[in-house]
Amino acid sequence: MIGAPPPPTAEPIVDVRGVSFRYGARGALENVSFTARAGEFVGLLGPNGAGKSTLVRLVAGLAAPSAGSVRLAGLDPAHAPRRAVAQVCALVPQEPRIGWPFTVREAVMMGRAPRQGLLALPTRFDHGAVQGALAACDLVHLADRRLDALSGGERRRVFFARALAQEPRVLLLDEPTAFLDLGHQVMVMRMAEVAARGGLCVVAVLHDLNLAAAACDRLVVLSRGRVVAEGPPADVLTAERVREVWDVPVWRGENGVTGAPVVLPALPRDR
Ligand SMILES: Nc1ncnc2c1ncn2[C@@H]1O[C@H](COP(=O)(O)OP(=O)(O)OP(=O)(O)O)[C@@H](O)[C@H]1O
Questions:
Q1: Beta strand 261-265 with 250-254: parallel, antiparallel or unpaired?
Q2: In which domain of life is the source organism classified (predicted)?
């Protein structure tokens, strides 16, 4: 963890209260409440199908809750103008899509759209934001490469850079470390931490409990559409809770270098 999170008294910029959501007859979220503040890095954890992506989509305004309320810097994101929402919040979805003929630099420049006038040429501020995002994501050497000539992991970094170039107040990341090698997993988590320490509110869906424990200020655990735990990583990631929620017996220890909690499956091997 880099530096300290904001005091718990700060106003939440993401404020989800008593939210439920259904896909047709199937309930995905049930009475979920959750807040996140500027300067905070919050990890959303939970097994497959727990409702994490659905919650992120509601915060980004891509869907409206069937009950309860979502506020994003005071906006109702499902009903506010998309441009106003995009000036506050950038989402890096699980499987971002974009037309292939673009270069990395052009794709990252798309993040500037909510800040540009219709048909206006990019300003030096736009170019500066794009260059900064490319540098932060270790993409400068790939800037003129076409997206279809990148590996899956490289493309994920491009979408992260596009979100940073958007200069949002809230950064929503859905599994930002999927398909990345260990070095780039750590790089992305550090970028998220640095963004939070710089004043962004960062909310990331994560499956790697140990990366989440090492980097996040606070963890929120979803299970079957409900919040079942919330708090600092060391309090949330107990062996009992991981076994209960993920249905796997684990060994719970501590990273000898950082002090962060570590959980590893504790299944005896069949020999
Ligand atoms: N488009 C959809 N139509 C119908 N049901 C859906 C749809 N998307 C998700 N669901 C269901 O809603 C529930 C929550 O899904 P969601 O994708 O939010 O879970 P998740 O925690 O992000 O899972 P994962 O870790 O597997 O990505 C699951 O039961 C899922 O099957």
A1: antiparallel
A2: Bacteria
Q: How many separate domains does the chain show? A: 1
Instruction: Tell me, yes or no, whether 2 lies in a domain.
Output: no
CA distance 253 to 173: 27
The Å distance, Cα 50 to ligand 1 centre, comes to 7
For ligand 1, atom 1, which residue shows the shortest CA distance? Answer: 23
Within-domain flag for 40: yes
Distance (Å) from CA 63 to ligand 1 centroid: 13
Question: pTM above the 0.95 mark?
Answer: no
Phi/psi for 22 (5° steps) reads: -125, 145
| Test site for ligand 1: of 44, 52, 66, most ligand atoms within 8 A of the Cβ | 52
pLDDT digit of tens for each residue in the chain (271 aa)? 666 666 655 789 999 999 999 999 999 999 999 999 999 999 999 999 999 999 999 999 999 999 999 999 999 999 999 999 999 999 998 877 776 689 999 999 999 988 877 667 888 888 999 999 999 888 999 999 999 888 888 888 899 999 999 999 999 999 999 888 898 899 889 989 999 999 999 999 999 999 999 999 999 999 999 999 999 999 999 999 999 999 999 999 999 998 999 999 998 777 6
3-state SS, one letter per residue, for 138-170: CCHHHCCCEHHHCCHHHHHHHHHHHHHHCCCCE
For the CA of 222, the closest atom of ligand 1 is: 21
Q: Which domain holds residue 204?
A: 13-265
